[in-house]
Every structure is written in structure tokens, then in C-alpha cells.
Amino acid sequence: MSGRSGFVHALLFSLILIGEALGAPKVIYGKYGNQSWPIQIAHLAFDSSWPGFVNKTTRWSTFEAPTFNEVFLPETIKDLSLGLQYLSSTDKIWLAKSGGHGYSPTLAIIQDAVMINMEKFDSVTMNSDLTVTVGSGAEFRDLVNTVGNAGRELTVGACACVGVMGATLGGGLGRLQVVLWNGTIVKASEKVNPDLFWGLRGAGQNFGVVAEVTFATWPAANNGLQYNADLTFTRDNLEALIDVTNDLLETEVDPALAIMVVYGSDPVSLDTIILMNIVYAGPQDAARAVVSRYSELSVSVTGQMVPWTNLTSVALGGLIDRACVPGRRHNQHSVLTRTLDKKTLLDIYESYGAFVQDNPAARTSLIFIETFGQQGVQTLPDSYSAFPHRNAFHNAIVFSMSYTDDEVAEVADAWGRQWRDRMAEPEISGYDDMHVYQNYAHGDEPKSALYGHTQWRHQRLSKLKSSYDPQGYFNGYHEVPPSLEDWS
Fold this sequence. Notes:
By secondary structure, the protein is an alpha+beta fold. 28% of the residues lie in helices and 22% in strands. The protein contains 15 helices and 19 strands. Strands 16-13-15-14-18-19-17 form a seven-stranded antiparallel β-sheet. β6 (124-126) and β7 form a beta hairpin. It starts with 13 loop residues before the first strand and ends in a 20-residue tail after the last helix.
């Protein structure tokens, strides 16, 4: 993440459409079918015989992924509303796609479905009050370019090709327009449907299809320039690297600072490599002071001031951008930690190296250790939104198992799960309970790990689920239990 504050500081206005559909009759609709879709939108629905079908329905990850036999490409919110009215009157299963990077295996319950592809909702518009309005088909690169070119900034994800809407619904938003399961269009903000607004910021995929959102922006720090440093390390200095980061965590991580450490493997030798990316949203001298604490331990270091709008293409030598290619298997497990347990991270390094040597087909698997400043997140009260990790988001440890050969699927899943569970142990994570960022979740974790451990959160979220999605049409992505008895 980069920028001056967390998603929880964003101002969001959302329009939600919610539609009804589980289990469809085996009838093909659309351009090549019998036009059973409403005549006003039948030209926007296509079955699998359409030449563009694969292109429009392919997602980033094919691991435990949903499958589709139709695609609906609404062009306006009226189209979307009418489409959901139609779908909710049938037994069809359906799923909305913004960026298509949701990789949770929970999505695998959605099979032979209608994809609602929101790509036509890709507008990003700066407003006269310096807010920015974003359609649900926009990606972070679209948002960053528009906001940055206006001399403004806001917090965004580290990967430019990720859809803005899906990522922000797992954290925090401003005002929204949402379409409910039955096609009803509603607004959500601090003043309009505030209960829904609360739930959308942290559990938003559970309540409807967000068509549009408005975020607050801030004047660009440091004239729109940020310092990017990429470093490489050997195993000999890994222990010292972890010590430096823990020293930063013991005091208070600078709010301008974001750190990412990656365990990867050389594609030829399969030897384990250690990469680090440091982004500092401030003056070069202050950035270099932080980088210098690591550079004396590194094998190589490069650093430069770059425009915020170009940051994602530069960070980690462009590795993040190259990971945008769709169609691979991506199976991720993750957990949040208070500190970085040195012994465990060293054990993971050794185990990862052995795993790749034994399973070369999984050599593109990566381990991410992400560390952020928490000031913006912790400034707001715990009750501010459905996002439950205000005091438990110091580090995110992500085990990203990636491959194309399913022969390694089982062993890759077991390896990632084993180390996720180990890192989640209280004496290692530093937290009494398990905490998992919802958008990084695998789906096998207790629901409380994603949405909070306090009963008042369970009560509030379950009430919202029952009110806004009574039929359970939005259960595909980390379902919020509709009753207290179903929480884990």
C-alpha cells in the first residue's frame, strides 16, 4: 500500500445492486440464444459460443475458481438494475466481476454461472470538491493516473491491475452507489443508509454490486514524488534484516513508509532469493535515512525518486506488474502479525527453499512480508467500520503458492496452510486471536479472524446480511453468517 492514510480515511459513496440467483435451468440466453433476457438488455448477454467469451470471463487465478456459461456486460446502471431484476427472478447463479483478482477458494461454490462483467463501468472522474468518483470496472492504475495528474493522492493497493472496488470493499470506502439482489438502487454514506455504509467498509462483497464509489483525495505529498528502493539480500543477513524491521515496529513505523520483503526462487537454479522494496512518501533525505539501515546489509541496492503515478511499474523491479498476467493457479494463505518472529521467518526461509527444490513446478510461489505505518488506521475508533483490524495490521505475511501444473496443487496448499497456521499461533503472531485481512483470506479461517472477534460485530454484520441479502446471493466471497449461531 502507498499513500498517506489507510482506506478507512477514504470518503465513499456507493450505489449497490443486489440480485437473486442460485442454480440455473440449463437454458442458454443471449445473442445466440432465445433472447429470454429482457429485450432492453438482451444484446448485452452472451453465451459460451460467443468468440469473446473466454476473454471476458477469464480471471487472474484459476485455482478453485468460479465457472461461467454466460456473461452479461451492462453499460449503465439501468442495465445493471434490469439485469439483476431478471436474474433474481430465475434460478441462475451469478457473480459480479470488477478487476477479477479475488482468489478465495470460497468462490468455487459458484459454478456454471452468469458473470456480470463490470468493465464498462471504468470511469474515474475528479470532482470540483477534489473528491474522485470511480466506477466499479476501474483498476488502480486508472485511479492513480487520474488522481495523480490532478496533483492529488490517496491510499491505493500495490498492484496496478487490481480492481479498485473489490480491494476497497475489504477495507474502507467513502460514499457508494449499490445495486441490491432485486435490482434496487441504493446509496450508502455516513448520512444515507449508514448501517449499510458501515458494513460495506470491510465486508462489502456480502451485500450487493457496487456500481460507483467516491473517495476523498489529499494534496500530493512531496510534489507527487515518492522514493522507491529495491534491495537484495543473502541468507547471512536475513536475521539482521528482520531485527531492523522489528526495531521500527517497536517505536512507530513512519506513516510515509511501506516495506515489502519477498522470498522467491531463481527460475533456473531454484536457489532462494530475498528481495526488499521500500517506498517512502516523503523527502529523499528522510527516505535514504531509512534505506541506509538496510542497505549496509544488502548485496545490491537501487533507489530513486519516482512519480507516484509510476510507482507500481518500478517497485520490485517491475515484479508486481509482471504478476498481473491472468490464468495461473494462485492459492494464498495469510495472517497478520504484531512483530516478525525471527526464528519462524528463518524456518520459513529454509522450508521454502526445500519445498521449491522438491517441487520445481511451484517455483513461482512467493512469500510476502508486508509492513506498514498504522497511524491512519488507528486514529479512528474501532467501531468506525466493519474493518476489524485497527490494532492488528502491523505486518501481513502472505504465502502465495503459484503454479500451472496441478500435480503440485495438494502439496503447495498443505505447505502454505501449515506455515499460515504456525504464524498465527499467539506466541508467534503477537496477537491473542487470529487476524486475517479479508482480501488476503483463503476461506478456511474462522469467520471471526476476518470480521472481528467481538460479539457486537457478529450481531451487526449478521443483521445487515439478513436485511440486504436475505436469499444469500452474495455468499460466494467470504460469506458473513446470517445468524450468530453460524459464527466461528
